[in-house]
Amino acid sequence: MSEELTVARWWTAADVDEVTQMLASRRARLWQLADPAELAAWVFADPDPAPVDPAPADFDGDWTEGLDEAGRQSWALAGWVARTVVPEAARTAGSHWILSRLDDGAPTVLRLTVGVLEILGLYENGEGVWLRLHGGPVVLAMERGVADLEEWGRRGIELSEDGTKTLADEKMMLRCPDLGTARWLLRQQPAIAGLRLLSCWVAAGPYSFEGRYRPEIVARAWRASEALVGHGIGTVVGDSVGFDRPYLGAQVRVGLPAQRSFDADAYRAGVTEHDRLCRALIERLAGEGVRAGAGLHGLPVDLAWRDSEGRQFVAEVKSVVGGNEVEQLRLGLGQILEYRHRLAARGQPVTAVLVVSQCTDPTWREICADSGVLLWAG
Predict the structure, then answer these.
(1) Which residues contact 342 (CB under 8 A, 6 or more apart)?
(2) Which of 12, 195, 337, 377 is the most buried (most CB within 10 A)?
(3) Which pLDDT score is estimated for 235?
């Protein structure tokens, strides 16, 4: 994809043109409903779901019947993804995609199949979500500094090998440990673009599942997705201890895809060092009787906590490995200032902390102090 940048955007018109040519190379019934150029622009557009009306099918019952809270959230997420990443979703249900409920094992699985490829699967009990997406938009966003794979790893999102043959060299398989993590991932526009691009490609190919289409399943999920629209798909409200969720750490468990244009060893070292710093700070705070966790009001702050006097703190943690000290300090300071500003706009004043492995230039303490940021090295 094009390396030319435009202001405040991680993609360019040249990228849209490239996707247009890619899609136009396939002959499909889909082009009776949509133009390849329009779909290429949609791939990179904001992740707004298709309108609730008209729905693909009627559903007269109570979609929540028999479901606990995890089940309701799972159905809502499945419907939201279908409405958001399937091209012309309302008109193509049953002819280009289906949503299935597989209850022949435990736990029950919801599966979104577009063309011949499953692009979403999740357990109805909320204990795991997996997604297939085209890697092009994600790699593009990484190269342009938008997608932060370290943050994805810290949230427990795993990249694993995908054995399906369709676009074998360009697909990514992402696994999320829970629904909250999946909702966070689906707020990242490069992830949505990757899902949409893969969905457009496979929706324009062969389809042989008409006989398995159950309109009541699609309609139920379609109705359920209204619970997420307008409320922020990744919004998580922090609890009284001052963070959204416990800190779980991160590990790099599998080999990284071959198309990645970065040093995999350095990436792994950075994740390990980042985890060490987080745990060191958590232990330090625990020694003072303070619990720390991750995230605050839906923002991906590395650590957050309230002290004994009720003051709210948020920290950005940056690993310094391989001589990248200045780069990490600059990046970390910018991120923590952004989080502080966004939280203040939501009526949440915080004390901002920047945590780094080391800081050999004492001027950085002055720089951080001038911005009202506490600097901790260790």
Answers:
(1) 299
(2) 195
(3) 38
H helix and E strand count, the chain: 12, 12
Q: Alpha helix (H) ranges present in 113-188?
A: 135-143, 149-154, 179-185
Per-residue tokens: 268:
């792994």
Strand order in the sheet with 117-123: 97-102, 109-114, 117-123, 129-134, 171-176, 158-160
For residue 54, is the peptide bond before it cis, meaning its omega torsion is within 30 degrees of 0? yes
- Split at pLDDT 50, 70, 90, the class of 9 is low
Which residues face 9 on adjacent strands?
6
Under 8 Å between Cβ of 190 and 166: no
Query: What are the tens digits of pLDDT across the range 218-256?
Result: 999 999 988 775 444 543 333 456 776 677 665 544 444
Q: What is the DSSP letter of 106?
A: S
pLDDT confidence band for 52 (50 / 70 / 90):
confident
Span 48-60, average pLDDT: 86
Question: How far apart are the C-alpha atoms of 241 and 317, rounded to whole Å?
Answer: 20
Pair 164, 117: CB distance under 8 Å: yes
* 42 phi/psi in degrees, rounded to 5: -65, -35
Pick from 77-86, 171-180, 313-322 the range whose average pLDDT is largest.
Answer: 77-86
Residue-range domains of the chain with CATH: 13-227 (no CATH), 245-377 (3.40.1350.10)
Exposed / middle / buried, residue 120 (Cβ in 10 Å: 0-12, 13-18, 19+): buried
Mean pLDDT value across residues 33-55 = 91
Q: Is 213 helix (H, G, I), strand (E, B) or coil?
A: coil
Q: What H or E segment, with its residue span, contains residue 94?
A: none
Q: Return d(Cα 191, Cα 195) in angstroms, integer.
A: 6
What tokens does 83 get?
């409405």
What is the distance of C-alpha 361 from the center of its chain? 35
